[in-house]
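Appendix C: a fully annotated inverse folding record. The material below is reproduced so that readers can follow the format used throughout the book. The structure is listed first as tokens, followed by the designed sequence.
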């Protein structure tokens, strides 16, 4: 619950300083495609599965909307441990949740058809369940993540619409932070990598309330 509370507070503070012109609620469902990730002594493979979610957006004008996003993917997975003596494999079910705060931008179109692009930052929470063989444990993990996507909204009426979208979510693992100094002064830097990319293909219904 902690990521939800934090992102909700951030969105409230942002919107309270802005003059929202409309509010949009949307619910959607679809399919999430995941992949494999290697690490120092093995590999984890997250299988594809269904996804559902929702968004709460505040329209700020000029085709810009600030948005809170939540989605949930229930899938299965496999962990392969590579060891010098024995190879071990665990099967498990997984709950993957994204809590994101982002911006959606309309890309042309008209009042009825509105293509858009979206970018967001937030938290990806991985919760393993029902691990086989029994007696083994996999710890829940939360990671900072980034999302980006494209879609289209169609409004046959002023208040009700539908949307189709394709998005990708990328958990980020920070691999190092450094500070350096030289004759020209001091500076710093950090690096990260993306262990796995989750691709979402979905559609849903929009309820729009103009203020």
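Designed amino acids, in order:
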């Amino acid at each position: 619950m902690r990521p939800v509370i934090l992102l909700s507070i951030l969105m409230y503070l942002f919107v309270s300083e802005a003059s929202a012109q409309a509010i949009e609620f949307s619910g959607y469902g679809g399919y999430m495609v995941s992949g494999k990730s290697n690490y120092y002594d093995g590999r984890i493979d997250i299988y594809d599965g269904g996804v559902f979610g929702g968004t709460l957006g505040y329209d700020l004008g000029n085709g810009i909307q600030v948005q809170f996003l939540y989605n949930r993917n229930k899938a299965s997975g496999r962990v392969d441990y590579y060891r010098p003596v024995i190879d071990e494999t665990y099967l498990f079910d997984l709950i993957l949740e994204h809590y994101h705060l982002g911006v959606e931008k309309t890309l042309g179109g008209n009042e009825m058809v509105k293509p858009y692009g979206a970018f967001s930052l937030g938290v990806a929470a991985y919760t393993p369940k029902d691990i086989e063989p029994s007696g083994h444990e996999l710890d829940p993990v939360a990671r900072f993540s980034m999302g980006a996507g494209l879609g289209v909204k169609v409004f046959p009426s002023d208040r009700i619409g539908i949307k189709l979208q394709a998005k990708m979510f990328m958990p980020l693992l920070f691999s190092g932070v450094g500070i350096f100094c030289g004759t020209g002064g001091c500076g710093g830097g950090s690096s990260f990598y993306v262990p796995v990319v989750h691709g979402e293909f979905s559609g849903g219904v929009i309820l729009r309330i103009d203020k």
